[in-house]
């Protein structure tokens, strides 16, 4: 069962790249007392994610933050090394690049994607959510291929 607007973010630990390597970061540290726009992609370096989805948030980061968002976070079922390299290759310094390497947070959200047909294993569905102090206020999950419901432009209309 998928999480929905009005639900609290489940407790989980993700990974970010620190100065000395991967570091744990809890959902409490990410979301508590903040307004966060979290978007998730099926995989770093994949075509739609690299050409459209992440770049939309990179170019609009200042506008999104000017509308009251404290943190813009990008998440994928990838490790912190991959997320860090992808963020650097996309000039995503303004974004928090979150690795959910084992998919535990994705499973807790109920937003898994079976990518075995593409050789990807279990991944995250493409989605975006607005979270205020740990509570989801908006959740947009893509109904299929494409990037419309979870794009930066769509989410900016909700701010």
Automatic annotation (TrEMBL):
Provide one Gene Ontology biological process annotation: cellular response to oxidative stress
Q: What is its EC number?
A: 1.11.1.27
Q: Which PROSITE patterns would you find in this protein's record?
A: THIOREDOXIN_2
Which reaction equation describes what this protein catalyses? a hydroperoxide + 2 glutathione = an alcohol + glutathione disulfide + H2O
Per the UniProt entry, the signal peptide is none
Q: Which GO terms describe its molecular function?
A: thioredoxin peroxidase activity
Top enzyme class: oxidoreductase
To which protein family does this belong?
A: Belongs to the peroxiredoxin family. Prx5 subfamily.
Main function: Thiol-specific peroxidase that catalyzes the reduction of hydrogen peroxide and organic hydroperoxides to water and alcohols, respectively. Plays a role in cell protection against oxidative stress by detoxifying peroxides.
State what protein this is by name: Glutathione-dependent peroxiredoxin
Give the species.
Sediminihaliea albiluteola
Task: Specify the taxonomic lineage.
Answer: Bacteria, Pseudomonadati, Pseudomonadota, Gammaproteobacteria, Cellvibrionales
């Amino acid at each position: 069962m998928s999480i929905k607007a009005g639900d609290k973010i489940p407790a989980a630990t993700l990974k970010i790249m620190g100065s000395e390597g991967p570091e744990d970061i809890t959902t409490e540290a990410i979301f508590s007392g903040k307004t966060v726009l979290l978007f998730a992609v099926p995989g770093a370096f994949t075509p739609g994610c690299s050409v459209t989805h992440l770049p939309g948030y990179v170019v609009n980061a200042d506008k999104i933050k000017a509308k009251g968002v404290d943190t813009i976070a990008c998440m994928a079922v990838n490790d912190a090394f991959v997320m860090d390299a992808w963020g650097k290759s996309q000039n995503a310094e303004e974004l928090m690049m979150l690795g959910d390497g084992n998919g535990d947070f994705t499973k807790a959200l109920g937003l898994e994607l079976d990518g075995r047909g593409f050789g990807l294993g279990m991944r995250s569905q493409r989605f975006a959510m607005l979270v205020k102090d740990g509570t989801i206020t908006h959740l947009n999950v893509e109904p299929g291929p494409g990037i419309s419901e979870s794009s930066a432009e769509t989410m900016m209309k909700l701010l």
